């Protein structure tokens, strides 16, 4: 399949999930914003007609106009999977669908909808006890978040599509961003997309700005508009998303410095750290009825949130500045609750 055919298939509505069609001029208009050196509308029509002949596209004649949509299951693997998929593959796909509940996989998984449907149909057609075990497997496993469940704001799919496309093709991205302190902002800005990161149910775009040394984080649900531009940019060789996230700890929010954190836990509150240490150099010991834990961590707002979650079941022994800060907070809380 040629590049232009792939672009046409991408913009067409999918018959599996949408009932509408696009006219040839509508297809052409959608391609103008994403395809450089776009051929003429007549050439696009010829590509559409050829895709119809190949069984990948459906066409209806409405008066003198031809309207088009992608045939259900006509994308990628789904076009061939119907008669080839076995029970192992069907189970893998259904497990992926069931447990891809976080926002990024869910949005991307829309492209796999035809495969998921084929897999579900395959698992329903059981001929023996072994196949029935396959079909029951997905209902025997569950995933639950360890934190308090919140209803996170939804990301508009068209915004996610534009952002991920610009990221993949290393194109500049025009966005209108509305942070909490400026929720009515309508001013567009051009950014250079470096990566997507999901943190606790929220999805962030890490993007550079021409003339600025350091990237900026943008929450995708706060975008009021996002458009992948035709102009490309050179992805910086000096930037590595994994380093930005895991080593520089930018998503710990308001990172300050590394500190030696010393904690004293009560009532078993910190026992999970014996199996999931808070740092590579963690040391721990039980003294009387308390668990003493220490390790080198990054001082940040996220660390403070974590410590507050233990309430009276943790005492910060060091560093002294953090102990004093949390002691002042505790005194303020005591004053609030004493009223």
Secondary-structure topology with pairs:
Blueprint: H1 3-11, E1 22-23, H2 24-32, H3 41-53, E2 57-62, E3 65-70, H4 78-81, H5 87-99, H6 103-109, H7 113-124, H8 129-137, H9 157-169, E4 171-177, E5 188-199, E6 202-208, E7 216-219, E8 223-232, H10 241-247, E9 258-265, E10 283-287, E11 290-298, H11 301-308, E12 314-318, H12 320-337
Antiparallel strand pairs: 1-3, 2-3, 4-5, 4-8, 5-6, 6-7, 9-11, 9-12, 10-11
Find the count of extended strands (DSSP E, 2+ residues).
12
Helix % is 25-40%
Return the domain count.
Answer: 4
The biggest sheet amounts to: 5 strands, antiparallel
Beta percentage is: 15-25%
Query: What is the annotated CATH architecture of the largest domain?
Result: Roll
CATH topological fold name of the largest domain:
SH3 type barrels
**Side-by-side strand order of the widest sheet:** 7-6-5-4-8
Q: Give average pLDDT, whole number.
A: 85
The CATH class label of the largest domain is Mainly Beta
Helix and strand pattern: HEHHEEHHHHHHEEEEEHEEEHEH
Structural class: alpha+beta
Our measurement of the CA-to-CA distance between the termini, rounded to an integer number of angstroms, reads: 72 Å
Low-confidence stretches: none
Determine Rg (CA atoms, Å). Answer: 26 Å
Q: How many H/I helices? A: 12
Shape estimate? globular
